Protein 1
Amino acid sequence: MGWTVDDIPSQEGRIAVVTGANIGLGLETTRALAAKGATVVMACRSRSRGEAARRQLLDEGLTGLDLLEIDLADLRSIERAIAVLSDQYGHLDLLLNNAGVMAPPRQLSPQGHELQFAVNHLGHMALTQGLLPLMASQTDPRVVTVTSGAQYFGTIRWDDLSWAQGYDRYGAYGQSKLANVMFALELHNRLQSENSSVKSLAAHPGIARTNLQPA
């Protein structure tokens, strides 16, 4: 008998941040956590799309849903979001690094990084580092980073992380997802060495029909 969302224990009193919460896996994660009693901060790039998704969940009878505008491609936006979360909540139990972009034409972030590397990896790394202090004193706090099978064909181009030469959109995506796994595992090791209560987990969603790629 497989595991289902019904097996999720009560999340009453816990605060979760879900990036990319307005659609796909992020929306389903938000729905599941809210149904179990968590306060879920829906961290979305588009305020209008985030609010539409929030209204959809409220119409389903769910509660405890807040909205946070954040552009994971922009480190300045991430800094502002961290400040908002610190001021409004003061602590955090769950961070789900879910948002992502896949295979766009080559674009650069405001800080000059290739867009997929910026959003999928660098943005989530910066967000995690900024929020870890809010998690340190909580019971069973977790950082969950969503990964992909694309990690297996990804390589890190240490001499050209932003693919200034020979850009391949799927190669850059694979690099970003490999970086996700490397980050989740290294964070796990460092947290353990510090005897931190925070757990760093990597989660592969399997084959999921989302808007990230054609069905």
Note: The chain has one domain: 13-203.
Protein 2
Amino acid sequence: MSMRLQASRGIAATEGKRLSFAHSASAFRAASAYLAGGVSSNVRSTPAPHPLVIEKAEGAYVVDADGNRLIDYYGGMGPIILGHNDARIGRAVSDQLDKVVLAAGQSAIEIEAARIFCKMVPCAERVRFNISGTEADQAALRIARAATGRTKVIKFEGHYHGWVDSVLWSNAPGLEDAGSAENPTPVAGSLGMPASSGAEIVVLPWNDLPLLEARLRKGDIAAVIMEAAMCNAAAIKPREGYLEGARRVCSETGAILIFDEVITGFRVAPGGAQQVFGVTPDLAVFAKAIANGFPVAAVAGRADLMELCAKSVLHAGTYNAQPLCMAATLATLQLLQDGSLHDGIAARGTRMMAAFTEIFDEKGMPARVTGFPQVFHLALGVSEPARDWRDVLKSDRQLYRRFSTELLFNGVRALERGVWFLSAAHDHKVVDDTLEIVRGVVKSL
């Protein structure tokens, strides 16, 4: 084994060495001649000092083009719940590969995955599989509009429901553009989006039940779509009574309540955030942790709503329920359904959250750790927990970027936006090594 392949956990922090990413830098420059911006997803272009080329991933680690073995808290941006390259998932997919890859028909493995899905998820009387959360969100909104005969949809500042024009509004607005908290201005998330694509979107601040109820009472809303816990931009739980109130008012006004559980689904509990909080939506969208890294998403909910897909609502996709992905889905759900893996992750995540608070307190640096043990958020420069997107903007994001960059140079790969994803492979030894590195980096700050 070459010397550069021997970099491992804790070495950079304990010996005062900074890792080198020269080979990734060179590969990224070469990629930029062929891939627009050097990447195939904009969210991969943000890491400092530059995007990494990952050559291998196993358990709680990734190995990059320079041979650096990094403790990984990206988790593939959330899908990796069992650990990278889990052998059980690999065997299930390999077995299916010997049978059929794609045949434009139903498969027994899809039916079994759907059965377990509906058993696990409180709202799921029926389910349809997709490839991405973006697609599944669009399906949920189409169903809601068909069921109600209405067109307007309420979404919330800081919540993300995919990159398409119809929902990419106010997902990360600046205060200079967002207007008042009581009556936010919808802000397009990208150039190239026509104003007409937001004509049916009503933007509100999250976690404010009186404002939501007042808008719903007008009687023209087809659906309310929200992250049941705001985990894309941070990891913010709903205020006490907020989800219950939203459920009640949606029922009273005929609006469809949609939970976007792309991040929380199968990650925070076998039945997602709706199980944790005890509030059942009409429809819900899942992706990420559903198949431990394979491209699978789902829209699920009440039978009367979902059965519209069998009648007048078009839901299609050549690669929906692709058998290899269904093999990964079934194997993942079977491992997650009893909740024991969640309990193990929770024990270690709780320990990490408490240790982070202690480390920053000892340094005298204001910081808040919020969310779930399986997915939490660290904000620097604030003393109070965030309740909505505007609170998220109060944190010192430049300082956090310095922090996450220093972590990377010392062997820990953490998202620059402050969200940490844990998997079942993040055992106590991994947590110990992570905390050792974090302590060293915080001391240097």
Note: The radius of gyration is 22 Å.
